[in-house]
Amino acid sequence: MTRAPIPYGRQVIDDEDTASVLDALRSAWLTTGPRVGDFERAFATFCGASEGVAVNSGTAALHAAMRALKIGQGDEVIIPAITFAASSNAAVYEGGTPVFADVDPETLLIDPVSVDQKITSRTRAIVAVDYGGQPADYDALRELAAGRGIRIIADACHAPGATYKGRKVGTIADLSAFSFHPVKHLTTCEGGMVLTDDPEMAAHMRRFRNHGIDSDHRSREKAGTFAYDMVELGYNYRLPDVQCALGIAQLKRLPRWLERRQAIAARYDEMFSEISFVRPLAARPDRTNAYHLYVIRLDLRQIKIDRERAFDHLRAAGIGVNVHYAPVYHHSFYRERFGYQPGFCPHAEAAYREILTLPMFPTLSEADQNYVVTTVAELSHL
Ligand SMILES: Cc1ncc(COP(=O)(O)O)c(C=O)c1O
Q1: Residues with Cβ within 6 A of ligand 1?
Q2: What is the count of structural domains for the chain?
C-alpha cells in the first residue's frame, strides 16, 4: 500500500467556509464591499490591535508598512538573514537598503546583539520576523530603537495568536504584517493584513492599497460625487470581499487550530527528546509559539549524511519536508544589487546547512506524525 504524501503545511476548509464564500459571491459586493471592514475589525480584535488594513498578500502588507513609515532612498532597514525574501523585498520596493542581521542559533530569531552592530545613522526600521511562529525579542529590539528614530515592523506572517510576555503579536511593533496564504494559520487563498494602533498610518495604508486615491468607490457613492484625487503613487493591493468572507469564517476556528499546532509541537518535542542528533528550535519561556513551522536542526556530527541527503530521504518516503530559509542575501539578486558575500551572518549560514521543516498543520494525524518521526530516526542509519 502506498501512503499519500504528507505536506509540510495544508489549509483546512469546511462547510462554514464555503457557505460564507457563497454568500459573498451572491451579494452585491465581490470587492471593496462591507466584508473588507468586517474582516479587518474581526482580525484586529482577535489580535488586540485597533486598526487592520486588509491587502491581497503578506508581501503587500509589508510593502504598505514600509510606505507608512516613509522608507525611501538611502534609508537602511535591518532584517534577519533567515526569513522569506518578501521581508526584505518590501524595503527594496521603496528604495530602502536592506541590512541583514544574524540570528540566534537556538531560535533563528533576529539577534539583538547583531542588530546593535548593524545600526547606523541611516537605520530607519527593524523588521522583527516571528520565525516559525515564535515572537522575536521585542523588548530588546525596542530598547535598541528607542530615541534613535528607528521604528519596528513585525513580520508576523508566521505568528497570528502568538504572545510575547503576555502581549499578543500584532500589538507590540509599530506595524505588524500578516499573511493568509494557504500554508499559514488561516487562509484567504492569497491575502494579508497590517495591524497598527496608529490611525494616521492606517489611513495612509488604505489609500496606498487603492492606487494612492484619497477616497474609495463606496465613500464616493455615499457622498454623491464622482471626483477623486490620486495623492501618491499607490498600488491595487485590495483584498476582495469574497476572500474576506473566507477569512471571516476561518478566523472563528483559529484558537482551536493554534491549540492543535501547539499540541503537535509538544508531541514532536517529546518524541525527538529520544533522538540525540535532532534538535528542535528552542522555545523561549516568556513567549507562546503559534507554530506555523516545526523546524529541527540536524547535528551533522552525529550522522553520516548531509542535510540534502536527509531531505531526499524524507521526500522519497513521501514526507513533504522543506527548508525555511536560505539566508536572503544568498539570492543572486541580493548578491548582485547589494554586494553581499558569504560569511556575512555566520549563525544564519551554519543553521541553513542543518535545518529541516517537518509537517505541521492542524489536521496532521498522530499516525502520520509517528511516521515522520520514525523516518527522521532512520537518518542515522544512512
Ligand atoms: C516571513 C514571511 N514574510 C512574508 C511572507 C509573504 O506572504 P505572502 O506569501 O502572503 O505574500 C511570507 C510568506 O510565506 C513569510 O513566510
Answers
A1: 57-59, 83-84, 86-87, 129, 155, 157-158, 179, 181, 192
A2: 2
Which helix (DSSP H) or strand (DSSP E) does residue 76 occupy? strand 76-80
**In testing the pocket of ligand 1, which one of 134, 175, 176, 179 has its CB within 8 Å of the most ligand atoms?**
179
| Residue 375 forms part of a structural domain | yes
Same domain flag for 177 and 265:
no
- pLDDT of the chain along its 382 residues, tens only? 567 899 999 999 999 999 999 999 999 999 999 999 999 999 999 999 999 999 999 999 999 999 999 999 999 999 999 999 999 999 999 999 999 999 999 999 999 999 999 999 999 999 999 999 999 999 999 999 999 999 999 999 999 999 999 999 999 999 999 999 999 999 999 999 999 999 999 999 999 999 999 888 888 888 899 999 999 999 999 999 999 999 999 999 999 999 999 999 999 999 999 999 999 999 999 999 999 999 999 999 999 999 999 999 999 999 999 999 999 999 999 999 999 988 999 999 999 999 999 999 999 999 999 999 999 999 999 9
3-state secondary structure of 201: helix
Domain with 131 in it: 15-251
Active site residue 304: no
Strand partners, 350: none
Atom of ligand 1 minimally distant from the CA of 179:
10
With a CB cutoff of 8 Å and minimum separation 6, the contacts of 62 are: 86, 87, 89, 90, 127, 153, 155, 177, 192
C-alpha cell at 207: 489609500
Looking at the fold, whether 291 and 182 belong to one and the same domain comes out as no
Choice among 70, 118, 168, 184 that is catalytic: 184
Give the nearest ligand 1 atom to 190 CA: 10
- Check which CATH number belongs to the domain holding 299 and give it: 3.90.1150.10
| 266 in any annotated domain | yes
CATH number where 80 lies: 3.40.640.10
